[in-house]
Amino acid sequence: MSENGFRKVLMIAYYFPPMGLSGVQRTAKFAKYLMKYGWKPTVLTVEPSGYFAFDDSLLKEIEDAGVTIVRTGSKDINHLFKKRKIVPMPSERLRKLLQFFGDLFFLPDTKRGWKSTAVEKASELLESEHFDILFATAPPQTDFLIGVNLKKKFNIPLVVDYRDAWLDNPFKYFSTPLHTFLHKRMERKVLRAADRVLVTHRRVKESILRRFRFVDYNEVIILSQGFDPEDFLPAAGERRHSRMKMKIAHAGTFYGGRNPNVFLQALSNVLRDNPKMRGRFEVNFLGNAREEDIQFINRLELQGVVNCTGYVPHRECVRQIFEADVLWFIMDNDYQTAGKLYEYFGARKPMIASIVEGYTKQLIGESKAAVCVATKDLSGHEEAIMDYFKKFEQKKLPRIPEEFAARFNRVLLTRELAKQFESLMDYDRAGFVKVRGDKE
């Protein structure tokens, strides 16, 4: 054991509080609970710069848990907006354009300017104190490359955590065959160096095993996203009051094919065909809104029915999820896993899921409290809204079983992460050599 009976892990995470949005939740909550299982985390991340949202309350939560946070500067694009701090959400057209040029000119991603600074700072840490494990989480994939560099330099076991797929990421552009080749070569390098691979989704595991035949099935562990039970404590004690309006909530940011248009059109059609129901709905979009979404709401004359709150601190977001009667979820691919879905599970509320075929749809179906509708099925959305409204009036809305929700408790997921760390401690590091064939 290391200091005070704890083993130590160095966590490499570009996205970390006070940055907001879903990309920071997984790493932050792992860091928060690791000491409960005998692991003391030190998080290496960047100094706050321009970003879409900030959440100081989440940072305080992590600091109060005793997590050591080491920050460095970076030469990536985000730091050009450091003085502005909060950067407005771009339109979908501009987002695609920025993503395209970012992927065209920066490999593996636009955060590559952090690599040299991060490696230098991490090397200082590793030379001055003992760490047992390196943990790198991506995106950005630059985090993985930092982990590989440190693994080779200090011969410390490396765990890589795929929050999203790499080559199969639907929001990443591979502009030419050369780009695809270079990314595949980088991912191969990461997987050869990694001692354990974590993924949030079965589809990502299948993708890795199909593309890189040298990776052993048992080295890739599915460790899902989750919810923090402490986030629900204030809300759990509140009494539900009867009300005339059915509250529907969506948490998260819209981008790509993940937009609210079909849902909003369905809601508009329901209210058009049933004018007396107009005062019976309240829809809250919890997260940064794009101008195009607000314009669409106005075009459908849904002002006063649909509210865009902007970014709200994480626990406030969870409170509003808990206070809703029905939750709406949308996912247009089966390679990503939105963290908010698992907080929906934690709230145990019924769900309308605009979803494509795949493992995520299967998982939502297992909750026994969801209606799954194809993302473009307008009439299916209308029927789902009407069905839940009838159940709301009858006080017969379904509820996700507690035993299902418990599978995604972040405390228990962190315990599983600690077990993976411990499994890599059962060898003599000086004599450890990982042998793999060259077949792919």
What attributes characterize this protein structure?
440 residues; single chain; 2 domains; 16% strand; six-stranded parallel sheet; alpha/beta; 13 strands; globular; seven-stranded parallel sheet; Rossmann fold
Description:
The protein is of the alpha/beta class and 440 residues long. It has helices spanning 25-34, 56-64, 92-105, 115-128, 142-154, 177-193, 202-211, 233-236, 261-273, 291-299, 314-323, 339-347, 359-366, 378-393, 402-405, 410-423; strands at 7-12, 39-46, 68-72, 133-138, 158-162, 196-199, 220-222, 246-251, 281-286, 306-310, 326-331, 351-355, 370-373. The protein folds into 2 domains: 3-226 and 409-431, 3-Layer(aba) Sandwich (Rossmann fold), CATH 3.40.50.2000; 229-406, Rossmann fold (3-Layer(aba) Sandwich), CATH 3.40.50.2000. Helix 6 links the parallel strand 5 (158-162) and strand 6 (196-199). Helix 1 (25-34) packs parallel to helix 2 (56-64), helix 5 (142-154) crosses helix 6 and helix 9 (261-273) crosses helix 14. The longest helix is centred in the middle third of the chain and has 17 residues, at 177-193. It is globular, with a radius of gyration of 22 Å. The relative contact order is 0.12. The model is unreliable at 428-433 and 435-439 (pLDDT under 50).
